[in-house]
Amino acid sequence: MKHNFSKMKILTIDQGNSSVKAVVWQNGEPLESLRISALSIEELLPLLERHEIEGCAFCSVAHKDAKFLETLRRLVDGNLVVLTPSLSLPIEIRYGSRESLGADRVAAAVGAFSRFPGEPNLVVDAGTAVTIDFLDESSTFLGGNIAPGMSLRFSSLHEATSRLPMVGSGGELPLIGNDTVTAIRCGVIRGMAAEISDAYFFAKEKYGCARVIMAGADADVLAPVLSEKGVPVITDHYLVGRGLERIYKFELFQD
């Protein structure tokens, strides 16, 4: 059976640690997106009403709300795919604890595969936590690293010390901090960039990694610093949703 993917509208919902991002997709392109603070059918309804949604893919790093999912399933006529460890995927997962592997990490890796099939990539999601994952040329997820995200680093320095101020990412970013504020900002942002670039150059040498593909709230802050280090980086704020759309099509229409 053939399906007209070019006209199909798919809703993807990514429930993260800090917010929920919903995106309407058609033929691999985002048509409209919405970011809300928590799962809410009421806040999603206008999006559903503006588009003739034919299916939905959902992933969450938090507790799954069964009532929400059941209501959502009815609204999309049962065409709901929830990303779980047992779900079939267009990539292979080589990870020792699949049950504990974050669904957002899987979806981001599939999003990178969707953009660059058959190419090795370093997949970075710079949100509440920063995840750095390896995807090789055979489309195998090899694992990666998890570390505190930018906001967590700034807040922990402030909260765990008696004199260090709360600092944000906006402002001067010299190579070497020239006062306490820039020292903290450089330490956090350039430190994160160093972690990512170190992983990239390792992946380039071992797997022929072609690029860093990065999503997350802090991607735009980190990308220029990585570029300064000679790291080829592509920012894609729709990466997790892109992966969810690809997973939806793969799961329902493998025929």
Outline of the structure:
This protein is α/β, with parallel strands linked by helices and 255 residues long. It has seven helices and eleven strands. The model has no long low-confidence stretch (mean pLDDT 94).
Largest sheet geometry: 6 strands, mixed
- Which runs of at least 5 residues are low in confidence (pLDDT < 50)? none
DSSP E strands, number: 11
In DSSP terms (H or I, runs of 4 or more residues), the helix count works out at 7
Descriptive account of the structure:
- With 255 residues, the chain is α/β, with parallel strands linked by helices.
- Helices cover 37% and strands 24% of the residues.
- The strands form 2 sheets. The protein has a 6-stranded mixed beta sheet with strand order 6-9-8-7-10-11, with helices on both faces. Strands 3-2-1-4-5 form a 5-stranded mixed beta sheet, sandwiched between helices.
- A hairpin with a 4-residue loop joins strand 8 and strand 9.
- The protein starts with 8 loop residues before the first strand and ends with a helix.
- The mean pLDDT is 94.
Outline the fold blueprint.
Blueprint: E1 9-15, E2 20-26, E3 29-36, H1 41-50, E4 55-60, H2 66-75, E5 80-82, E6 92-93, H3 103-115, E7 121-126, E8 129-135, E9 140-148, H4 150-159, H5 180-207, E10 212-215, H6 219-228, E11 233-235, H7 239-252
Parallel strand pairs: 1-4, 4-5, 6-9, 7-10, 10-11
Antiparallel strand pairs: 1-2, 2-3, 7-8, 8-9
Helix pairs in contact: 3-7, 4-5, 5-6
